[in-house]
């Protein structure tokens, strides 16, 4: 009898996915869902044929360059693969896959919610009532926010998620602008009514709301650097559902504190799960909205991500190229 491949799964996955993995593979599941320590991760790549990883696993070059590293496939449960040294994996002949598409719409929904959240102040309002706060009753001048319609939204990264955000934002009456490595196809730009900015600097200086929707790659680390953040208008908002590392978070925090940027809505942070206490203070003051990395967190999405992981593993084991391979030149 052929031995089933050992598949080590670093985090707890939806029940239906774990059941299927047990049927198909010799699956070593992580039932108590504690993130793996660096030592456990080192050990996992030495014992597993296949590793199912998530954003919380730092799979560095050091982890992969161990002489007795055995793993042949790293099947990431997630779209972003910035936690994996893809170049080091490639050099060692290790295949890396991710789970694109299935989380696009959910992430775009959450981005849209965050685009609304700070200007329309609904988190602040809800928090006040939830805390049993004293509501003086309706007043013509109370809890006023800013209208979305007619404002300019600047999307950084016009891939699948950026485009899904643009479609939603257009329905809310926002004018769509974007910066990307290259313009999208004219047909898509037309459909989205989207204006391309080759210069990120120039776009930043003119937008009312900026939404970060690009992956973290070496080229996008601190893309919103201190210098660029200073180009943003005083009455503008920054939204990030991509990766915290794309923004110089400390400078963003300082600029909001100083009233140089109106506010921000952040689902991701530079040093997750740590959240800068100064951002928390700004949240209490209604200047920012903070979410704990929930962009793709739907039951449906997580099951579909798990199904994609299984397809990638099975195709790999059938000696075919898995559909969602990530190659260094894609970064
Ligand atoms: C996932 C994400 O929850 O897919 C991504 O890139 O940020 C999230 O949707 C996480 O990465 C799981 O690995």
Search tags:
13 helices; seven-stranded parallel β-sheet; NAD binding; 331 residues; Rossmann fold; D-isomer_2_OHA_DH_cat_dom; alpha/beta; globular; five-stranded parallel β-sheet; Glycolate reductase; 14% strand; binds 2-keto-D-gluconic acid
Helix-strand layout with pairing:
Blueprint: E1 6-9, H1 15-24, E2 26-28, H2 38-47, E3 50-53, H3 61-64, E4 73-76, H4 86-91, E5 95-97, H5 104-120, H6 122-130, E6 152-156, H7 160-171, E7 175-179, H8 186-192, E8 194-196, H9 200-204, E9 209-212, H10 226-229, E10 237-240, H11 249-257, E11 263-266, H12 277-284, E12 288-290, H13 299-317
Parallel strand pairs: 1-2, 1-3, 3-4, 4-5, 6-7, 6-9, 7-8, 9-10, 10-11, 11-12
Helix pairs in contact: 1-13, 5-7
Bound molecules: 2-keto-D-gluconic acid.
2-keto-D-gluconic acid binds next to loops.
What is the averaged pLDDT score?
97
Determine the number of helices (DSSP H or I, runs of at least 4 residues). Answer: 13
So, CATH architecture of the largest domain?
3-Layer(aba) Sandwich
Kindly report the oligomeric state of this protein: single chain
Are any ligands bound, and if so which? 2-keto-D-gluconic acid
> Strand order of the main beta sheet, please?
8-7-6-9-10-11-12
- Order of H and E elements: EHEHEHEHEHHEHEHEHEHEHEHEH
Number of strands: 12
| Ends distance | 40 Å
Strand content: 5-15%
Helix fraction bin: 25-40%
Task: Give the class-level CATH name of the largest domain.
Answer: Alpha Beta
CATH superfamily of the largest domain: NAD(P)-binding Rossmann-like Domain
- Whole-number total of structural domains: 2
- Round the Cα radius of gyration to an integer and report it: 21 Å
The CATH topology of the largest domain comes to Rossmann fold
Apparent shape: globular
Q: Which structural class should the secondary elements be placed in? A: alpha/beta
Organism: Nitrobacter hamburgensis (strain DSM 10229 / NCIMB 13809 / X14)
Keywords: NAD, Oxidoreductase
Protein name: Glycolate reductase
Family: Belongs to the D-isomer specific 2-hydroxyacid dehydrogenase family.
